[in-house]
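Folding problem:
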Amino acid sequence: MPNIKTTCLLFTFALFTSTPAEAADFVNLVNGRNLDGWTQRNGTATYRLEGDAVVGKTGEGSPNSFLCTDKLYGDFELKFEVKVDAELNSGVQIRSQTVGGTPEGRVNGPQVEISLDGMAGYVYGESAGGWMTPDDDRKAHQHFKDGEWNAYRVVANGNTIKTWINGHPVSDLTHKERYKSHPKGFIGLQVHGIGAGQGPYEVRWRKLKLRDLTK
């Protein structure tokens, strides 16, 4: 019979090596080798894989650019980490589409904000009427840290979209008019447009993982 010390060690090993069932449901959106499964839409920013991060770099005078998943997602939990140059605004599109369904069509849909102006994590309607998170619910915060990797969590389920940054809840949005059903769309990594004579600036994403909630 194992003694108490051995039993405790075995319990501790099991505790820290076991994987929760839901963690196994997350899939990597980037394969770690290239950007297969993604398509750039709009703009002339560039995207590259550098180590474990997708790096978006501004193109001078370019409008907003988006690197978008070829697969569409409806109800899901999305996790990622992001770091952005202080001068650049960015975001992650969810449940989004393009006009006409072509790469050249204008990207539109909900965007989870990435910025240093206190609005990070709130939901903006890209080419869809402005802020989706109501004005009264958008309180400036300091959960997004300049020069650091920031952990985002996004849960889109039915007509609700909830967001967290570094473990802090930010936005809890219910949009019955837009989401009466369970819509699907792509995930898109935005590099915001900049004017002539500005930049270049970069934004980096890593650990992009998604768990399908429709199963």
About this structure: Residues 1-19 have pLDDT under 50 and may be disordered. Residues 159 and 179 are 5 Å apart (CA to CA).
